Amino acid sequence: MLSILNARLLSRLSIAVARQPVLLARASRLPTLVARRSFITSIPLAFPAVRAPAKSTAGRKTATTAKKPAAKKKPATGKKAAPKKKPATKKVATKKKAATKKKAAKPKRRVTAKKPVVKKSTRVTKAQAPPPRGPSPFILFSNEYGKNHKDVSIVERAKLSGAAWRALSEEEKQPYVTLSAARSTVAQEERTRYFASVDPDLLRRLNKQRIASKKNRIPVPRILRKPPSSFFLYLSEIRDPSLSAVENAKSAGAAWKALPESEKEVYRERCLELTKEHKLKLEERAKHLPKSA
């Protein structure tokens, strides 16, 4: 019995030695039970495994994607699921494209410069002012003297002309006096015509300008002056020449407040009569004014 077993063992060992390279290459794939055997049992034969054909990468990808289990659906609740929104980037891109198309389609507007608004000036010009008075004899002499001394400055010319005027005798001054009187007469006639046709409002504005420039007021003709009020009529009656204007105004104001209404009414009626007369005079004056005034 033992001899038969030994013969079988030797035959199998010879076969194993012949196939040693193959067994060593596939030793890692042998089952763990091969290393443990008894002499009673027979040695199981192990043959090299047949290689499977290599699969393509595309097939592997599809296989892996197919093997993924489907996502579990959440149980439906009372609220409806909101519809999926499209990505905002696409909308922004489409909107921007549409906006650029619209902007390109609009024609360019021509920007016209606005004309500056010219404000009407209420300032009285020199042409609207009253004509000047006639020149004095000294002014006529200094003008003549300056024509012969143009190489001198204005200040020196004024000093020299003043000294020369004082050195003249009365007979030498007489021609300038006569010429001054003649020109003053013509200038006075022009001023009379001016004040006869001038607008009272223009004179008021002109006097405001002159006061602002620290110049003297232009005297307004009596025909253009407004009549005094009831208080000033009362003041003219009780005015004390020994007192100043301020003192007279204070005393008249206190007396006017203490005056009974019946006496005040007399002065008010007189003021109304003077106002009516002044209005009639202005209307009569306006009839004779030129159309350009």
TrEMBL record:
GO cellular component entries:
nucleus
Give the source's domain of life in one word: Eukaryota
Keywords in alphabetical order:
DNA-binding, Nucleus
In the UniProt record, does the keyword Coiled coil occur? no
Q: Which SUPFAM superfamilies match?
A: HMG-box
DNA-binding residues per UniProt?
A: 131-195, 224-286
Pfam (any one): HMG_box
Stretches for region Disordered = 52-138
Composition bias of kind Low complexity appears in 57-68
List the Gene3D superfamilies hit by this protein, alphabetically.
Answer: High mobility group box domain (1.10.30.10)
Enumerate the InterPro entries for this protein: HMG_box_dom, HMG_box_dom_sf, HMGB
What are the GO MF terms of this UniProt record?
DNA binding
Does DNA-binding show up as a keyword for this record? yes
The record, for SMART domains, names: HMG
Basic residues bias located where?
A: 69-123
Tell me which residues make up the HMG box domain: 131-195, 224-286
Name of protein: HMG box domain-containing protein
Which organism does this record belong to?
A: Favolaschia claudopus
